[in-house]
Amino acid sequence: KKTHQYELRLEAPHERRRETGERLNVGFVRLMDLYRIHQQMGPRLFERNIRFGLGEEEGANRSLRRAFERIVLEGADVAGLFAFNHNGVTLSVEKLVVRDGMVAVTEPRVLNGAQTLTTLARFIEKKKDHPEFRKGKERLEELEVLVKVIDDAEAQFVVGVTICTNK
Asked: How confident is the model at residue 94 (pLDDT cuts 50, 70, 90)?
């Protein structure tokens, strides 16, 4: 089994640690960086996500797709609006190293946010040949989402966070 490790730029990071040792880092990351992790890890990234299988016509997925269309295809919304309107992504990692505005994450798993990444992947795949996509695709690199990264946590704690963040 290959170990996956990635570096992410974490904007405006804040850390909290529980008295029992679990650590939470919160900040903003580029959505396309998470997308690239998804492309490399595939479904393994979502092993701990309980809503991974929702269809693309579910309400949240339609809203996400529409947001991507408005930003990338139509230019009707600026990319910066996405972070305001999105609930964020929660990750669990085996190891997290924070240094100089970057985080190195080992074996990330999406606890909440799989719908965002799968909807983005479908959007890119379906629209990649669309003339407006080719003109506006650089706006995808500007999209940021709030991210919560949990490490130093036992499996049972991660299960509890997964359930709570998906309610």
From this structure: very high
- In the chain, the DSSP E strands lie at 5-9, 11-17, 23-30, 89-92, 95-99, 102-106, 109-112, 144-151
Name the burial class of residue 153, with classes exposed (0-12), middle (13-18) and buried (19+) by CB atoms within 10 angstroms of its CB.
buried
What does the pLDDT look like over 115-156, one tens digit per residue?
Answer: 999 999 999 999 999 999 999 999 999 999 999 999 999 999
Choose among 159, 134, 153, 165: nearest CA to 22: 153
For residue 9, name the pLDDT band (cuts at 50, 70, 90).
Answer: very high
* Dist. CA 154–CA 124, nearest whole Å: 35
Rounded Cα distance, 53 and 26, in Å: 26
DSSP, res 148: E
CB 116 within 8 Å of CB 64: yes
Token reading at 57 = 């016509």
Per-residue tokens: 27: 């900040």
